[in-house]
Give the backbone structure.
Amino acid sequence: MTIKLYAMAFQDRSDRVRWLLEEMETPYENHFLKKDKGEMDAPEYRQINPMGRVPTIVDGDIVMKESAAICMYLADKYSYGCLAPKMEDAKLRAEYTKWMFFSVGSLECVIARMFTHTSTPEETKVTHEYVKKQCEIMSLALTPALSRHDYILSSGFSTADIMLGSIIPGAHEYLVKNNPVIEAYMNRLMNRKAAIKAQVF
Ligand SMILES: N[C@@H](CCC(=O)N[C@@H](CS)C(=O)NCC(=O)O)C(=O)O
C-alpha cells in the first residue's frame, strides 16, 4: 500500500519526510491540505491528526505524526542498516539517535522562535540575540563533527543529515554564513538528487 504524506506545501516540516522517501525510492503520495479552505480542520483529517498539523503519514494501518519520529520510523522500516544504523552497531546508533533528537529538540525549537517571538522590534532583537548565542553553542557540536567527515555520522549519509539539512537553513545567518564547514555540508546536501526532487531547498 502506498504511503500517504499529508502536508501544506513542499517547504513545511513535511520536507524532511519527502526527502527521505525520495532517498529510499519508497513509493508515496503527496496530499496537500489547503489551510485557507479549512482542510486542516476537516473532521477526516482531525481524526488522523487531532492537532490539525502536518506532516502526518499513513502507512497501511500505521498513522504517524511528528516529523523526526516519522523519519525514524520510515528509515528503520525501509532502510535499516543503510539510512538508519542498526541497533547492533550500538555506538553508531547512539550517535544517530542523538543527532535525530538534537535536530528538533535543540536546533529547530530555537530557530522556530524567530517566527514566534518577533512581534515587536524589541522582542525581535532579544530573540535574535538568543538564537545567535544558541547557534554558537550548537556549532560547538556540529562543526567538529562535520570537520571530521562529510556527513554527521562517520559511516556516511543518514536520516540524521536529512533532519539537520532541512532545519539548518532556518538559521542561515547564524549557522551557515560565516562557517565554511557547515556551508560546505549544506552544499553537499542541497545537491543530492533526492533533495532536489523533493523540493526541500
Ligand atoms: N513538531 C512537529 C511540528 C508540526 C508543525 O507545527 N507543523 C506546522 C507546519 S510546518 C503546522 O502544521 N502548523 C499548523 C498551521 O500552520 O496551522 C513536527 O516536527 O512534525
The first strand starts at residue 3 and ends at 7.
